[in-house]
């Protein structure tokens, strides 16, 4: 049975990605920084396990890696989904650097640290996938979208995706960035145009790519997005 890890999966898109990957027959490790595992996995059918993970906390990452080494072995898919975005409007001149720093820690360094730490346990030689959940806000084409703290952290995540795709190519691990669209979650708000099911599909597409699928790209609904 193939195994996936999903970060920030106690609610929102991450929780739905767990549901869809489990429905596709994978064993899924649902992770969250807070809350109890029992309520996070509640109602999800299939082989779903729970482990605590704060992507900004190095010791928390090490605990997850120790668990994977002892109990799981090889991980086929990593979905770097955890993210933050504060609604408070800021421009580059009014930016609160505590928020800029937090966005960087969660949205950019989180995926970087976790992928680096998990690499020894990721499936090599075909089948390995890393999905970085990004945003159109990180695209240079839509430079008005999102606060600077968020947009800069996601643009950096996009570059990280390309760099990682090079470094993981020898191991045949496909690394892609995905925008789920504007989705009705706590982050996206009630007015967003997409359901979590629709948004999660975009992410799951990149998690379940065939071995000859793309790497180092930025996608929404399986279609390339402008950087
Ligand atoms: P939500 O705010 O609903 O969920 C965000 C999740 O990230 C929560 O589970 C939250 O946990 C978790 N999280 C935050 N910080 C950390 C951390 N340090 N360690 C581990 N988990 C953490 O957002 P969405 O589900 O909408 O967003 C999921 C991803 O999709 C994000 O990367 C976001 O940027 C991206 N995205 C979303 C869009 C949208 O319209 N919704 C549009 C484009 C991209 P907790 O409950 O503890 O806070």
Automatic annotation (TrEMBL):
Domain of life: Bacteria
Originating species: Neolewinella maritima
GO terms for MF: 3-oxoacyl-[acyl-carrier-protein] reductase (NADPH) activity
Keyword Magnesium: no
Keywords linked to the UniProt accession: NADP, Oxidoreductase
Keyword Cytoplasm among record annotations: no
Record-stated family: Belongs to the short-chain dehydrogenases/reductases (SDR) family.
Pfam family, one: adh_short
Protein name as catalogued: 3-oxoacyl-[acyl-carrier-protein] reductase FabG
First-level EC class: oxidoreductase
PANTHER family in the cross-refs: (+)-NEOMENTHOL DEHYDROGENASE (PTHR43490), SHORT-CHAIN DEHYDROGENASE_REDUCTASE (PTHR43490:SF99)
Residues in the signal sequence: none
Domain Ketoreductase residue range list: 2-179
